[in-house]
Amino acid sequence: MDRSYAGSTSRNNSGSKWGSSGGFDRMKGWGGSSYNDVQDAEKRYGPAANKKQSSTPSYLAPKTSAPKVVEHTPSADFVASDTSNLQVGQKVEHQKFGFGEVMKMEGAAHNPIATVKFEHNGEKKIMLNYAKLRIVE
Predict the structure, then answer these.
(1) Which of 7, 8, 104, 129 could be joined to 115 by an S-S link, Cβ 3.0–4.6 Å?
(2) Radius of gyration over every alpha carbon of the chain, rounded to an integer in angstroms
(3) Smallest Cα–Cα separation from 119: which of 91, 83, 87?
(4) Lowest-confidence range among 9-18, 41-50, 92-101, 126-135?
(5) Cα(25)–Cα(12) distance, integer angstroms
(6) pLDDT tens-digit profile of 73-108?
(7) 20-50: per-residue pLDDT in tens?
(8) Is the pTM of this model over 0.85?
(9) At CA 106, angle to CA 100 and CA 110, rounded to 5?
(10) Which among 87, 85, 96 is positioned nearest to 118, based on CA atoms?
């Protein structure tokens, strides 16, 4: 069987046994570029762009930090209620987020999720299987 196809081809070798200036060298970046190439590129295209920009591009939204959670000290008589019959409009107390009102109920019966609007911490989606809520009203 002819194995002449194994190894590199003459197209990548540039005539030498190891391809000292062939495609492999160009691919790896050996011996091809010099200081003059950089100068030629700067003459043709201008100086290289600064990688670090002082401001964000106009198409990106400005960075906003996450709102801080206003810590709540639970009531002295705080005991988690059974939330299986929680309804929209009920007032609740959460151990961390404080007092709020149930705005929406969603999710499956085995994994209900309540959207609660808290007085100081905004709207939060709370998985009722894990959260400890006390029903106030």
Answers:
(1) 104
(2) 33
(3) 91
(4) 9-18
(5) 9
(6) 888 888 999 998 999 999 999 999 999 999 999 999
(7) 555 555 555 555 555 678 888 888 888 877 6
(8) no
(9) 110
(10) 96
State the residue for tokens 């960075």: 63
Q: How far apart are CA 98 and CA 75, in angstroms?
A: 9
What six digits make up the tokens of 4? 């002449």
Closest CA to 97 of 71, 131, 79, 128: 71
- Judged by DSSP in three states, 118 sits in strand
Measured distance CA(88)–CA(2) in Å, rounded: 80
- Please list, in sequence order, all residues whose beta carbon lies within 8 angstroms of the beta carbon of residue 16, skipping any fewer than 6 positions away: 22
Question: Where would I find the beta strands (DSSP E) of the chain?
Answer: 91-94, 98-108, 111-118, 122-127, 133-135
Residues 6+ apart with CB under 8 A from 133: 80, 81, 83, 86, 92, 93, 94, 114, 116, 126
What is the amino acid identity at position 87?
Q
Q: CB 121: neighbour CB atoms within 10 A? A: 20
Token digits for 108? 């499956």
